[in-house]
Amino acid sequence: MSRPTTPPGPTRPDSLGAPDMTDDASVAAFARTLDEAARSSATTGLLTADVPDLTLDAAYRVQRAGIARRLARGETVIGAKMGFTSRAKMAQMGIDDVIWGLLTDAMQVEDGATLDTSALIHPRIEPEIAFLIGEPLSGRVSPAAAVRAVAGIAVAYEVIDSRYADFRFTLPDVVADNASACAFGIGPWHAPDRVAGENLGMVMEVDGRTVATGSSAAILGNPVRSLAAAARLAEGAGSPLRPGDIVLAGAATAAVPLTPGAHVRVVAAELGRVEVTTR
């Protein structure tokens, strides 16, 4: 993926006092607000409260500027996460397409490791399917063509954590907030030609108690459709998926609140398990 440059300095309001989202400085100011909220474990107001007509294009510019701040601190982009891959969630949000955010190496938690939740705002965890990219992938491709670029498939989890109060936001707000990306973990990789990933039973347990069950079919009917969508969005962003990148295809169930002192295990048929303990 391309590495965005460090965004410019403070915002410059337009003549009416509202930020001008065609101005790089205003984009950078919003990115700074979201980034500082995450780093200080504090919620912030909706961007659309200041810019009611915030467009998706402008929201993605804020997202990239926020990632640029992380890169400036030494992080590296290692893939992408897909959002709103549930038809029910799309209907709830009044949209007909998925969104994406970027993953950095600082977000990845080793399988079985401990995640410190003390710096998070209101984290939630959800079971996912992950793909490991084996060949460059971008553009409008069929799911079959997308899967040919895959080197591995794995069970995964994602921890999401909105910077907005009560996890409430509009579509542009969540896009600007890097699609609520926070942390993720991945189980063992499997050869994609040995696993039919379109309808894998999935279970998420917290402290040995089942809290969510579902199927990978909840991810756009087949998670490889989400992968194909990632390729399309990658082209639009000028950031082709590269060998070694990880794509989180989306959640197989609703997210569950994540509390300190919990042990979470996600199991997927044919793919094994991935685990994390919180503190």
TrEMBL record:
UniProt-recorded Gene Ontology molecular function terms: hydrolase activity
Keywords: Hydrolase, Lyase
Signal peptide (residue range): none
Keyword Hydrolase on entry: yes
The Fumarylacetoacetase-like C-terminal domain, residue ranges: 122-277
Region (Disordered): 1-22
Gene3D superfamilies in alphabetical order: Fumarylacetoacetase-like, C-terminal domain
Pfam family, one: FAA_hydrolase
Superkingdom classification of source: Bacteria
Positions with biased composition (Pro residues): 1-11
InterPro entries: Fumarylacetoacetase-like_C, Fumarylacetoacetase_C_sf, Hydratase-Decarb/MhpD_sf
Record's protein name: Fumarylacetoacetate hydrolase family protein
Organism: Yinghuangia aomiensis
Taxonomic path: Bacteria, Bacillati, Actinomycetota, Actinomycetes, Kitasatosporales
